[in-house]
Sequence to fold (210 residues):
Amino acid sequence: MARLHLFDLDGTLLHGTTAPVEISRQLGLEAEAVALDQAIGAGLIGPPEYAAEVYALWAELTEAHVVAAFDGAPWLARIREVWAEIREAGDYCAVVSLSPSFFVERLIHWGAHAAHGSLFPAVPFTEPVDPAGVLSAAAKVRIADRLCEEFAVTRADCVAYGDSLSDRDLFDVVPVSVAVNADRHLSGRATHSYVGRDLWEAYELVRLAR
Fold:
């Protein structure tokens, strides 16, 4: 039976940062984005409010800013190698993130079978962000279920990789999970734990796990 590997983005594939922070850095607004990350991490605001706030920060955002943020971000090592190995094994890999879709979807070019983020308008913005398209922890589970159907697997065939509160619901419904550089919200919920900057090392923990 094939397996589906589900990867979070912020704090997981990206080491110690989030896509909104990396995007905002290109506009000289890193501190503002970090403050928003701290607010949502503490539960002071929810995903829709967070999305509205970062959208407001990005009034001057261009495609060039997004490219620079993506290319300059502190990615874990060997992401593409892991996804190539997953494909060669006949398994599937997907990214499911609360970060903007226009950033997350770039990972398709690195070998992910699917990449889902909060739905933002195209850059540069000419329309508002729709709160209904903003993902949540619960939405990650719903997307995982849709991907299971698409790839003809079940939750029992899933492996989740994440670092924080937004991954908790998904970790609770899959049999194998890897806490990657994780915070206290995933303590005791993951079947495996990894601290470091190389995705291959995290993948090795579960490569043969069933």
Observations:
- The two ends are 10 Å apart (CA to CA).
- The mean pLDDT is 95.
- DSSP finds ten helices and six strands in the chain.
- The CA atoms of residues 147 and 200 lie 23 Å apart.
